[in-house]
Amino acid sequence: TDLGCKTSLSNIDLKSPEPFKIEISNDLSICADAKITIDAQALLPNNQTYEWTLPNNTKQINPKLLISEAGTYSIEITNKDKCKATDVFNVKVLNRVSGVIFALSSAGKLGETIYAINLTPTEVATEWKTFGNTEIVSNAVNLLAFKAKSEGEIRVVLQSILGDCNVSVEKTISINGSV
């Protein structure tokens, strides 16, 4: 006390809010002409504001963002405690896979070995698939050999994959009678 004045201090506990961190997306690869939507509100609900910065530096305040072009994207989210967090990710646009082609006879006999020949350029990764009652004899990059186990139609698909871009070519062979 000084001159009849009394001073007292109380301890005040200040609580710091939990750290606010976000990770909306890792870097993405999308196919040319493809569009994807990222909904930040669905990933991180109960927040106050969502502000996207697009590759051309324009801003968007909608929590949903439609992405169709390459570049760096960022989002700043403000939560109910007025804390802010930011995430940045890059989007790469992949060229469409082209030139997927293979040869297959239009008819075959039950029990005979049937060949599908991959004529796709070698730099394109491919994968064979068959639909129908078949026994795979050999499955190599350039050649698929199989036998039909029943009469009817067999679908053969050659799928090419480049990143997240897929292109499939399908052909059908009719299987009749035995060898």
Stretches with pLDDT under 50, minimum 5 residues: none
* Helix-strand makeup class: mainly beta
Mean pLDDT: 85
User: What's the number of helices?
Assistant: 1
Spell out the helices and strands N to C.
EEHEEEEEEEEEEEEE
Radius of gyration: 30 Å
Q: How widely separated are the two ends?
A: 113 Å
Major sheet strand order:
1-7-6-3-4
Percent of sequence in beta strands: over 45%
State the helical fraction. under 10%
Largest beta-sheet details: 5 strands, mixed
Description:
This protein has one helix at residues 40-43, and strands spanning 28-31, 36-39, 47-53, 59-60, 64-67, 71-79, 84-94, 102-104, 107-110, 113-118, 125-131, 134-139, 143-148, 152-162, 165-178. The mean pLDDT is 85. Strand 14 (152-162) and strand 15 (165-178) form a beta hairpin. The strands form four sheets. A five-stranded mixed beta sheet has the order 1-7-6-3-4, with no helix packed on it. It is built from one helix and 15 strands; from the N terminus they run ββαβββββββββββββ. With 179 residues, it is mostly beta strands.
Summarize it.
By secondary structure, the chain is mainly beta.
